[in-house]
Design goal:
- With 127 residues, this protein is α/β, with parallel strands linked by helices.
- 37% of the residues lie in helices and 14% in strands.
- Strands 1-2-3 form a three-stranded parallel sheet, with helices on both faces.
- α3 links the parallel β2 (68-74) and β3.
- The longest helix is centred in the C-terminal third of the chain and has 16 residues, at 109-124.
Length: 127
């Protein structure tokens, strides 16, 4: 891929750089919403896999094929701290990410409606 964007994403499914979300642990997988299993498979085996954003970044960096990256999250989103930590980690690893924290928004359609317009402008830009 040439570019990738995340809008309030669950960007650390392997919990490599963020603490477990409240109520979640590998021992309490029965409480994880079913869609998570469809999206990620066995959540205890994500770290280092093809579903681990940090592992994917390491692989792309080693191959010299880093895509342009865009990441945004509302400051009131329950995934806000996860997004901050992943951004900090990837930036320390050498990523160049167009990163935005949008005040006042939760994990909600109003945020995504606003941000998708920014992503479309961003993806059409040339370097």
């Amino acid at each position: 891929y040439a570019a990738a964007a995340s809008l309030s994403g669950f960007v650390d499914a392997g919990f490599r750089v963020t603490p477990l979300l409240p109520g979640f642990s590998p021992d309490s997988l029965g409480r994880v919403p079913p869609f998570m299993f469809h999206a990620y498979g066995d959540m205890t085996k994500i770290a280092g896999s093809h579903r681990d954003i940090i592992a994917l970044f390491e692989k792309a960096k080693a191959a010299g094929t880093l895509p342009r990256l865009y990441q945004s999250c509302g400051t009131e989103d329950f995934l806000f701290q996860m997004n901050q930590r992943v951004n900090e980690t990837l930036t320390e690893m050498g990523a160049k990410i167009d990163y935005w924290e949008v005040p006042g928004f939760e994990h909600e359609w109003d945020f995504w409606d606003l941000e998708i317009k920014n992503v479309l402008k961003w993806v059409l830009e040339t370097e």
